[in-house]
């Protein structure tokens, strides 16, 4: 199997980034909802879990930028025959995903940078991630306003990604079991894709 995309299917680089980012995003959405809704700040696990959440988010940010660059350099396989409306929905969903998988962690990083708590972020305990000084150097009242803005954006984007994920999985299953085309197989390792051209 080729590392690069071909006319028929995604290559191993695109597939690996797709599934790794998907697992990290799903895990972080579930984790974010869990600790924000069900865990008290008094819980001794609260801040270690937040550090893991932030580390995963920053990893998603880097991997998503790499994935976007890879996509620009490697044209994606053509969609199977479908209506113009479905084609527009498919392409729009993909580009909205690209926006969200970059915007969610970026909003989180901006939120952390504006936080008045000034708790350092360490990437899986290995090194400290710098805050963005344009926000962290602001006076505390100004930081609070920015923190709330980015916290709201982070949450809205995350819930939007969760909804889009349901649509994306539903579409993949629809293609696999109703249309019986190779859309899902193109993004799965070791599958054979038929050339219908």
Any chance you could write out the topology, listing elements then pairs?
Elements: H1 12-38, H2 46-73, H3 84-114, E1 121-123, E2 127-129, H4 133-136, H5 140-179
Antiparallel strand pairs: 1-2
Helix pairs in contact: 1-2, 2-3, 3-5
What are its keywords?
197 residues, mainly alpha, two-stranded antiparallel ribbon, 3% strand
Can you characterise this structure?
- The chain is mainly alpha-helical.
- Helix content is 66%, strand content 3%.
- The chain is built from five helices and two strands; from the N terminus they run H-H-H-E-E-H-H.
- It has a two-stranded antiparallel ribbon.
- A hairpin with a 3-residue loop joins strand 1 and strand 2.
- The longest helix is centred in the C-terminal third of the chain and has 40 residues, at 140-179.
- The protein is elongated, with a radius of gyration of 19 Å.
């Amino acid at each position: 199997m080729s590392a690069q995309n071909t006319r028929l299917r995604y290559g191993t680089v695109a597939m690996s980034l797709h599934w790794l980012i998907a697992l990290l995003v799903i895990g972080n959405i579930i984790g974010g909802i869990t600790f924000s809704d069900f865990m008290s700040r008094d819980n001794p696990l609260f801040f270690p879990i937040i550090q893991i959440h932030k580390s995963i988010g920053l990893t998603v940010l880097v991997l998503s930028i790499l994935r976007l660059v890879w996509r620009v350099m490697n044209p994606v396989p053509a969609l199977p025959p479908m209506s113009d409306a479905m084609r527009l929905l498919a392409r729009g969903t993909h580009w909205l995903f690209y926006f969200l998988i970059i915007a969610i962690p970026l909003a989180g990083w901006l939120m952390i940078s504006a936080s008045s708590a000034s708790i350092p972020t360490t990437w899986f305990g290995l090194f400290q991630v710098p805050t963005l000084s344009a926000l962290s150097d602001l006076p505390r009242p100004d930081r609070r306003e920015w923190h709330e803005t980015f916290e709201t954006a982070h949450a809205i984007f995350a819930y939007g990604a969760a909804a889009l994920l349901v649509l994306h999985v539903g579409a993949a299953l629809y293609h696999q079991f109703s249309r019986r085309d190779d859309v899902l197989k193109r993004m799965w390792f070791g599958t054979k894709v038929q050339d219908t051209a």
